[in-house]
């Protein structure tokens, strides 16, 4: 078996349980793995501030580990907090998307440092995102009136059936300018064109000088598909969407509420090897 050097983990639905908690067993296993010299990366659609508490719990500052935020649109060296790579949306995209959100009666928000700006009336999905990430939710109204609006990602929120209906419409409309995909049934994420977790990982692998064949990626949702396909080994959680399981090399027997990540560690990073 190849000696794998890098474990990349999605957060929600993978590393944390359904209550967004990181279990002691999973945390301990990931710390022990890093003590053995294996790099661990957290790759999430969350903004950096939403990833930091988990990275701190996993002692990333001690091991010099990395974060991929905004689905790969930003790479951060956790120890120094230095941004190693970043790509932003064209400034007119949030403004136009807000018009679309009002037309289709869904919500839209953008991330800024320390806050989530709601371009429409905050809904329960935005409030849940603010709680998960620990960011303040602010109602700003017209994005065009916000000075220096420069964002990595937009978040479209709404009932799953509504988002399912508008996803192909928006994907076609913005096909030359942005990437649009589900991260959760109630979230559509909008990132710069061609940006996804695999794109960010290509840059990180060059920095670390690790071949992709030595990388194991694990996730559960649609925004994890690209990195699962790109990895040397792509793993899907037992609770993953069927489309994610279909492209994975390995599917855990345990879900995220039962420390499924430890199953990936035991299988591909066995101690003593």
Overview of this structure, please?
By secondary structure, the chain is α/β, with parallel strands linked by helices. 37% of the residues lie in helices and 23% in strands. The protein is built from eleven helices and 14 strands. An eight-stranded mixed β-sheet has the order 5-4-3-2-1-12-13-14, with helices on both faces. The protein has a six-stranded mixed β-sheet with strand order 8-7-6-9-11-10, sandwiched between helices. Helix 9 links the parallel strand 12 and strand 13. The chain is globular.
List keywords for this structure.
14 strands; 11 helices; 37% helix; 273 residues; 8-stranded mixed sheet; alpha/beta
Low-pLDDT segments: none
Average pLDDT level: 93
Fraction of helical residues: 25-40%
Please state roughly what percent of the residues sit in beta strands, choosing from under 5%, 5-15%, 15-25%, 25-35%, 35-45% or over 45%: 15-25%
Q: How many strands in all?
A: 14
| Bulk shape | globular
Q: By helix and strand content, what is the structural category?
A: alpha/beta
Main sheet?
Answer: 8 strands, mixed
Quaternary status: single chain
What is the number of helical segments per DSSP (H or I, 4+ residues)? Answer: 11
In N-to-C order, the SSE pattern is EHHEHHEEEHEEHEEHEEHEHEHEH
Termini separation comes to 9 Å
Q: Main sheet: which strands, in order across?
A: 5-4-3-2-1-12-13-14
Rounded radius of gyration (Å) = 18 Å
């Amino acid at each position: 078996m190849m000696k794998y050097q890098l474990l990349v983990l999605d957060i929600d639905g993978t590393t944390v349980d359904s209550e967004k908690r990181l279990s002691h067993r999973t945390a301990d296993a990931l710390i022990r793995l890093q003590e053995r010299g294996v790099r661990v990366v957290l790759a999430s659609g969350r903004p950096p501030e939403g990833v930091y508490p988990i990275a701190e719990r996993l002692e990333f500052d001690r091991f010099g580990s990395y974060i991929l935020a905004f689905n790969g649109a930003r790479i951060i060296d956790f120890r120094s907090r230095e941004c190693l790579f970043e790509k932003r949306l064209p400034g007119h995209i949030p403004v136009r998307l807000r018009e679309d959100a009002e037309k289709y009666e869904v919500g839209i928000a953008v991330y800024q440092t320390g806050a989530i700006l709601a371009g429409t009336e905050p809904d329960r999905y935005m409030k849940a995102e603010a709680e998960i990430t620990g960011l303040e939710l602010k109602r700003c109204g017209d994005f065009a009136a916000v000075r220096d609006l420069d964002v990595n990602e937009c978040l479209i929120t709404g009932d799953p059936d509504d988002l399912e209906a508008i996803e192909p419409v928006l994907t076609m409309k913005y096909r030359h300018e942005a990437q649009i995909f589900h991260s959760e049934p109630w979230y559509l994420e909008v990132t710069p064109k061609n940006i996804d977790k695999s794109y960010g990982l290509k840059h990180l692998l060059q920095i670390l000088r690790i071949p992709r064949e030595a990388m194991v990626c694990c996730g559960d949702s649609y925004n994890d598909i690209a990195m699962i396909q790109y990895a040397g080994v792509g793993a899907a959680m037992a609770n993953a969407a069927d489309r994610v399981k279909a492209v994975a090399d390995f599917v855990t027997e345990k879900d995220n509420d039962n420390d499924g990540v430890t199953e990936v560690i035991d299988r591909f990073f066995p101690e003593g090897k």
